[in-house]
Design a protein that fits this description.
2 domains; mainly alpha; 4% strand; 3 strands; single chain; 312 residues; hpI Integrase, Chain A; three-stranded antiparallel sheet
Length: 312
């Protein structure tokens, strides 16, 4: 990579973090996808980042397809490259955008599994409270489900973010945007019970305000939470693929099934677009069928006519 390209990419990384408000991990992922384009250039594209044409980029996309990269991954890579060229336009490195007509592969929306309320109860009730980490795990899973948090939001949750009396938590979401989310009385009680154990833990310096700690007194990692949840699902006999995202999706779905307003769910999940919330809060067809049968006026009137006919 030439020094000029390296300087541009360094500026792009800074732009993603400061101007777009992305986390360091997300920004690095964007740059990792851009590196695939650099690899394409270094292997005979005959251009550089500032002189690539639409035709060059079409060839790059064709190579992604030839390499059997999944459509979803291709779409992510193309999205990252489009973001980079928007940056080049913004910073006046280019006058036109060669990615403007570049299309991503069509992909279907893959929705995660949803746990039923009974499965949620089985999952949490299967936690062995006699183990040192038992009450922490119980409080953690109750909080995930009660508030519909992302796993990164859970690991970043501070003790000071929980307002016990008001029954709200302050959540630091994507782009460091804060939102207020109600928390259930059940989750609050489980957190209070966990704090008894937490107060006996020797907390590492710099982690004093972190709510959920590991045995060494430091904050939990995302990987550790994935592992805890997967292991607990096996113990509870749940055969579905379960992750922190499953609890978030279940939270949204159960709210919608219970009659919650879609806009309210959007705010609690921290979605900028209502379209994202509509995808998240997918309801199974059987539930929709029951709702239509129960509430649509044509079905209600038909049931009344059937009742009168049967009873003469």
């Amino acid at each position: 990579m030439e020094q000029k390209e390296k300087n541009i990419i360094d500026k792009y990384l800074t732009w993603l973090c400061l101007e777009k408000g992305l986390s360091d991990n997300t920004a690095e992922a964007y740059v990792a996808d851009l590196n695939k384009l650099l690899h394409f250039i270094n292997n005979g594209a005959g251009a550089d980042l500032l002189s690539l044409t639409y035709q060059d980029l079409q060839q790059f996309v064709a190579q992604l397809n030839d390499a059997c990269i999944a459509a979803r991954s291709q779409a992510r890579i193309i999205s990252g490259i489009k973001s980079f060229y928007r940056f080049l336009l913004t910073e006046a490195y280019l006058q036109t955008d060669p990615t403007e007509l570049l299309e991503s592969p069509k992909i279907g929306v893959k929705l995660p599994d949803v746990l039923t309320e009974n499965e949620i109860n089985s999952l949490i009730n299967s936690i062995d409270l006699s183990k040192p980490e038992g009450q922490r795990n119980r409080a953690m899973l109750e909080t995930l489900y009660s508030c519909g948090l992302r796993v990164s939001e859970l690991t970043g949750l501070k003790f000071a973010d929980v307002y016990f009396g008001e029954q709200f938590v302050v959540v630091n979401g994507k782009g460091n945007k804060q939102r207020l989310v109600p928390i259930s009385q059940k989750a609050i009680q489980e957190i209070r019970n966990y704090l008894i154990d937490r107060n006996l833990t020797k907390v590492q310096k710099g982690h004093e305000n972190v709510l959920f700690l590991n045995r060494r007194g430091a904050g939990l990692t995302r990987v550790m939470i994935f592992h805890i949840l997967k292991e607990q699902a096996q113990i509870a006999g749940i055969r579905k693929t379960v992750s922190p995202h499953t609890l978030r999706h279940s939270f949204a779905t159960h709210l919608l099934e219970g009659g919650a307003n879609l806009r309210a769910i959007q705010m609690m999940l921290g979605h900028e677009s209502i379209t994202t919330t509509e995808i998240y809060t997918h309801i199974d067809r059987e539930f929709l069928r029951r709702e239509i049968i129960e509430h649509h006026p044509r079905n209600r009137s038909f049931e009344k006519e059937s009742h009168y006919t049967e009873n003469g």
